[in-house]
């Protein structure tokens, strides 16, 4: 079947497409009013049942020929076919486009609702975090306020303590100055009463200290203090005691429970703890003396012990000076010797501590 040389025109030109019958069994159409179809689109082309329909060249996009099954056209009906299929196809495309346009606003609405929900959740989270931060900040402020109060209290206590310490220190300094002034005053008064001859003798002895009792200084002390202090009733034992004191060989010890062998002297029972071996008086004896390496002991009364102890203290101090163990000026040494001489005088008169 050959295709007609010219396409048939629909009686109502411009309102319906023009169908072209091709030798391949297909019908091509073109909307009316677009002008005659070019001749290159009307030439016969070999048909191939297995090859796909070729797109017409030269037609605008969207106006390409649509392949439909070939059917015989009835010349009586003007070879027209109702355009229902085309209308339906066009309507389906419009519906699809309408659905696309309707889906787009729906997606935007969903995005907006999701965004609002996220904002609301984010706002709630931020509010909670802000509340927690404010609460922690309030607690920290309270802690800082408490610490500030503690610090102020400590500073006040420290100031009060410092002030009290300074006041106490000034008080102690004032008292020390007053005592020093009183001591200096007493020293000056004492120096006014001191025998300058005795101090001169002491200075001469200190320049060359010796234990020789024939030097002027020691000779005076022996005559005025040592001799009278060691002058007991039992003269024989008194001489032995003085020699032991000068040689530093006398030992005084408390009375033990077990008695040791003793030596008897005339008219004195030395083995009796109720009788003093030096004075011969009936006294409770808490101490006994031993002379040198002798194993004999002599019980002595507290008064006799105090007199012997006072003389021993004096000889101990002058031995320290003679050995160079006392490093002081002349005045402190002299006053210490005077104090020891005073102790011998008091012991000689019977004044001694009760524990003696």
Proportion in β-strands: 5-15%
Order of strands across the biggest sheet? 3-4-5
**Total number of β-strand segments?**
5
Helices and strands: which structural class?
Answer: mainly alpha
Outline, from the CA principal axes? elongated
Q: Biggest β-sheet, characterized? A: 3 strands, antiparallel
C-alpha Rg (nearest Å):
73 Å
The helix fraction, in percent, is: 40-55%
Number of helices: 6
Question: How would you state the average pLDDT, rounded?
Answer: 75
Describe this structure in words.
This protein is mainly α and 356 residues long. It has helices at residues 84-193, 196-207, 216-229, 235-247, 302-323, 330-348, and strands at 18-21, 27-30, 250-254, 287-291, 298-300. The strands form two sheets. A three-stranded antiparallel β-sheet has the order 3-4-5. A hairpin with a 6-residue loop joins strand 4 and strand 5. Helix 3 runs parallel beside helix 6 (330-348) and helix 5 packs antiparallel against helix 6. Residues 1-47, 55-83 and 258-270 have low confidence and may be disordered.
Write the layout of secondary structure elements.
Elements: E1 18-21, E2 27-30, H1 84-193, H2 196-207, H3 216-229, H4 235-247, E3 250-254, E4 287-291, E5 298-300, H5 302-323, H6 330-348
Antiparallel strand pairs: 1-2, 3-4, 4-5
